Amino acid sequence: MLRNLLALRQISQRTITTASRRQIENKVREKQKLFQEDNGIPVHLKGGVADALLYRATMILTVGGTIYALYLLALASFPKKQD
User: Fold this and answer.
1) Positions of E strands within 1-83
2) 3-state DSSP: the chain helix, strand, coil percent, rounded to 5?
């Protein structure tokens, strides 16, 4: 049992330490340049089309949720009359 655990430990260490790693290109400077550019675009929209879509979806959900909450509040404040 102990021999099996030691063998498993050795195999797991070997596969982790010898695995080849991908080299990821560092794009931080490019992103910093993009976001610090003074071009009149708000920072939350500088990411492109995806940011604009996320922003619009968030605004639609927020406004829609507020309107729905006000509707339910008005509905609850005027109870139906029982005949």
Assistant:
1) none
2) 70, 0, 30
Cβ proximity of 24 and 16 under 8 Å: no
Q: What is the pTM of this model?
A: 0.57
CB 31 within 8 A of CB 41: no
Rounded to the nearest angstrom, the gap between the alpha carbon of residue 51 and the centroid of all alpha carbons in its chain is 11
Burial (CB < 10 A; 0-12, 13-18, 19+), residue 51, is middle
For residues 8-20, average pLDDT: 64
> Are residues 63 and 57 in contact, defined by beta-carbon separation less than 8 angstroms?
no
CA-to-CA dists, residue 22 to 25, 34, 57, 58, angstroms: 10, 25, 35, 35
In one letter, which amino acid is 58? Answer: T
Encoded amino acid at 43, one letter: V
Residue that has been written with the tokens 């609850």 in this structure: 76
Phi and psi at residue 35, in whole multiples of 5°?
A: -80, -20
